[in-house]
């Protein structure tokens, strides 16, 4: 009769668990990311999830710096190129076409995943009835912690709020099953921003279940004031397509554009500070309110551009 020691039993148990874990494909678009790529890849390759169970696919979107050379120094990383269309959705589509995983993960190069990130996101997808999962995005700050960075950390990439309120989310930390892709198709490639919200909303409208997973956490550097406003405008240009394709009346969008020029209250800021911020942020409520008002107007200008583009593209 065979006998096993406790160590043998634990080794056998671990082996069985590893065998049951699905194959994962992590897909990341990059463009001139030489400053981030080493830190990013080291974090991705040091996950607690069994290394032989996931592949890492980097899709270069036309870098002109040292990004390609640095990626090639990681022999276990798959490097692809997509340069005919320069936006992250085109690059993601290229990576998705190549991917072998049962589960697919989209991760932005600016995000540094914590060691339990991959395991937590995959575990969520293994729950019955869960088809997509958006992970938590926590912000890091520069040494001086500017007001622009604080505002960015409060109001943007709030995955929990996006998922629970709008049943859509950003694509920089997203886990999903291959059947979602097979049903709703690839990302649209004719816009620079907003198509991750469009794509995830399309998935939930098709009946797929999108949930929030706080343990699938990544760290993301908060933007300072000028890059923040540029991001707001760019994202704003992509949002009208999401809404208009989901049956929003054009007049409602026009009224929303105009409403952004009405000075806001402080309630939303206070709620965000309570949920996502630091206690000392209350002492800077007035300048944060000023940034909030300015970004609302910049967002409205982005919406106006996206609204115009949406209808001119149909002519």
From TrEMBL:
<keyword id="KW-0808">Transferase</keyword>
<dbReference type="InterPro" id="IPR050834">
    <property type="entry name" value="Glycosyltransf_2"/>
</dbReference>
<dbReference type="InterPro" id="IPR029044">
    <property type="entry name" value="Nucleotide-diphossugar_trans"/>
</dbReference>
<dbReference type="Pfam" id="PF00535">
    <property type="entry name" value="Glycos_transf_2"/>
</dbReference>
<dbReference type="InterPro" id="IPR001173">
    <property type="entry name" value="Glyco_trans_2-like"/>
</dbReference>
<feature type="domain" description="Glycosyltransferase 2-like">
    <location>
        <begin position="25"/>
        <end position="181"/>
    </location>
</feature>
<protein>
    <submittedName>
        <fullName>Glycosyl transferase family 2</fullName>
    </submittedName>
</protein>
<dbReference type="GO" id="GO:0016740">
    <property type="term" value="F:transferase activity"/>
</dbReference>
């Amino acid at each position: 009769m065979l006998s096993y020691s406790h160590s043998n039993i634990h080794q056998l148990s671990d082996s069985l668990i590893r065998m049951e874990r699905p194959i994962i494909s992590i897909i990341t678009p990059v463009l001139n990311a030489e400053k981030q790529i080493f830190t990013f890849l080291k974090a991705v390759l040091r996950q607690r999830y069994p290394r032989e169970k996931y592949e890492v696919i980097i899709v270069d979107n036309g870098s002109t710096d040292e990004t390609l050379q640095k990626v090639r120094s990681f022999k276990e990383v798959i490097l692809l190129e997509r340069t005919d269309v320069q936006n992250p959705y085109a690059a993601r589509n290229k990576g998705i076409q190549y991917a072998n995983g049962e589960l697919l993960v989209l991760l932005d190069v600016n995000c540094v995943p914590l060691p339990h990130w991959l395991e937590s996101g995959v575990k969520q997808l293994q729950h019955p009835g869960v088809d997509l999962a958006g992970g938590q995005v926590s912000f890091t700050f520069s040494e001086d912690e500017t007001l622009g960075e604080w505002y960015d950390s409060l109001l943007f990439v709030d995955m929990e709020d996006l998922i629970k309120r709008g049943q859509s989310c950003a694509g920089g930390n997203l886990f999903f099953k291959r059947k979602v892709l097979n049903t709703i198709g690839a990302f649209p490639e004719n816009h620079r921003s907003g198509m991750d919200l469009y794509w995830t909303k399309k998935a939930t409208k098709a009946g797929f279940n999108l949930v929030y997973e706080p343990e699938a956490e990544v760290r993301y550097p908060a933007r300072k004031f000028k890059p923040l406003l540029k991001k707001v405008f760019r994202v704003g240009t992509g949002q009208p397509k999401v809404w208009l394709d989901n049956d929003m009346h054009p007049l409602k969008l026009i009224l929303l554009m105009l409403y952004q020029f009405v000075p806001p209250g402080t309630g939303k800021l206070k709620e965000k500070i309570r949920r996502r911020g630091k206690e000392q942020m209350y002492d800077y409520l007035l300048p944060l309110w000023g940034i909030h008002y300015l970004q609302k107007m910049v967002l409205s200008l982005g919406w106006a551009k996206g609204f115009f583009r949406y209808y001119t593209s149909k002519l």
